[in-house]
Write a structure and sequence with these properties.
The strands form five sheets. Strands 1, 2, 3, 4, 5, 6, 10 and 20 form an eight-stranded mixed sheet that branches. Strands 11-12-13-14 form a four-stranded antiparallel sheet. Strands 8-7-9 form a three-stranded antiparallel sheet. The relative contact order is 0.14. The protein has 418 residues and is of the alpha+beta class. It has twelve helices and 20 strands. 25% of the residues lie in helices and 29% in strands. Helix 4 links the parallel strand 4 and strand 5.
Length: 418
């Protein structure tokens, strides 16, 4: 007898207003079924942040019916993953199905996932920052979630969340985007995919279709050829070029950035998301997850001295030597910040913000050895930020007013029909 499914959705607007709807619905519709839930990184972060703020006890919820708790739609941050698992551990959440996925419009709906491979739990890895900036993968440490076990900090390391292994029938290859040759193991390259989940092309865009959906791996000849080259020597199927950069480790895909988003400083490649994470962790005044790192080749940066003198003069510096990094960060409401830290009430707001800028500069420089040439602090709901991890909270809210967008889906697989 075939399995039937029932899908339940929460509107994004309802979720933003009350993120506890996620655990409430998982508990309410758990029953005896086998359920799966798919959310993005923002949903996990918003749920945990609200639960801690309102002191909601996770023991009142029941996640025991889950056979899959997937993360999709944007980059999954290891810190968010650990915080969410720690919180939901009291809700009887099984760790077996928790994992991330990767996919895009051209690779529908997903090319990789941890779910069908019955991974015990997502194994987060720590890679060497300097090596990653040079396109090499050097694993320093691994992590599997346990209650009370935190991510170890390492000044030279960067924690990364896997996007799972290839789905049944799908193939994933890491290819040099310039030479179109297969990348050696432990090397960052463009993610290529092929299989039943790939699309045929773009509607009425033949040139773009040819470039993206008709890719072939350039095989090495003679002594330079290896087993992988020989494996695809007579291949007839095309590959889809994703435009994402990543690497494979233990058959698990790790996404580092989009090719177009990479920031190149002094000949080294940096993922904007890594810089953003360092920036929002630099100060409690900055809203978590609401930072944007952008690359510019020329910028006018108003000096703090000019602002302090009520703009009596404007001192600008030109930066034209390659790409430069600028950080845009949302700051939390002043009343909210001072309510948590009474000491800040004794200080001037401008003084605190100058310290925030200093801390952000030092954090990014210390973590990645990248100088920050400009920092812009913006208030909540005064700008539309789009971080490299997909939608930031502000643009997310803005789009919700007009677009039907779902946060998660719960399915109950049972024999028979409803």
């Amino acid at each position: 007898m075939p399995y039937m499914s029932k899908a339940l959705f929460i509107s994004a607007m309802s979720f933003v207003a009350n993120p506890m709807l996620l655990p409430q619905m998982l508990t309410k519709y758990g029953g005896d079924g086998k359920n799966f839930c798919v959310v993005n990184n923002f949903a996990l972060l918003h749920t945990v942040r609200t639960a801690r703020k309102k002191k909601v006890d996770a023991a009142q919820f029941d996640y025991s019916s889950l056979i899959c708790h997937g993360i999709g739609g944007d980059f999954a941050l290891p810190s968010t993953y650990v915080s969410y698992c720690e919180y939901t551990s009291k809700a009887k959440m099984p760790l077996a199905p928790f994992g991330s996925s990767w996919g895009q419009a051209e690779v529908t709906c997903a090319g990789t996932t941890a779910v069908p491979h019955h991974v015990k739990t997502a194994k987060v890895i720590m890679v060497h920052k300097e090596a990653l900036a040079e396109g090499r993968v050097q694993v320093l440490n691994t992590y599997e979630f346990e209650v009370g076990k935190k991510l170890e900090e390492n000044q030279e390391g960067l924690w990364m969340m896997p996007a799972g292994a290839a789905l049944m029938g799908m193939e994933i290859a890491i290819v040099n985007p310039d030479t179109l040759e297969l990348c050696p193991a432990d090397t960052v390259g463009e993610v290529w995919a092929r299989g039943p989940g790939t699309c045929a092309g773009y509607y009425r865009l033949p040139d773009k279709t040819e470039e993206t959906f008709r890719a072939r791996i350039a095989r090495k000849k003679g002594e330079d050829a290896d087993e992988e080259d020989n494996k695809w020597e007579n291949e007839k199927e095309f590959w889809v070029r994703s435009g994402d950069l990543g690497f494979l480790y233990n058959d698990q895909l790790f996404i580092t950035s989009r090719i177009k988003d990479v920031i190149i400083v002094n000949g080294k490649n940096f993922c904007p998301g890594d810089l953003e994470e360092s920036a929002h962790n630099a100060s409690n005044v900055v809203r978590k997850g609401n930072t944007v790192a952008v690359a510019i080749t020329e910028i006018d940066v108003d000096s703090a001295e000019a602002s302090a003198k009520k703009k009596e003069s404007q001192l600008s510096e030109k930066f034209t030597d390659g790409q430069q990094v600028v950080i845009i960060a949302e700051v939390r409401p002043w009343k909210e910040v001072t309510a948590e830290d009474a000491e800040l009430k004794k200080r001037k707001q401008e003084e605190v913000y100058e310290e925030v800028c200093k801390n952000v500069r030092e954090a990014v420089l210390g973590d990645h050895r990248v100088p920050v040439q400009g920092i812009y602090l913006v208030k909540v709901l005064t700008s539309q930020l789009i971080s490299s991890h997909n939608f930031s909270f502000i643009i997310f809210l803005w789009n919700l007013c007009f677009l039907p967008f779902f946060i998660f889906c719960v399915c109950e697989n049972r024999k028979g029909a409803y």
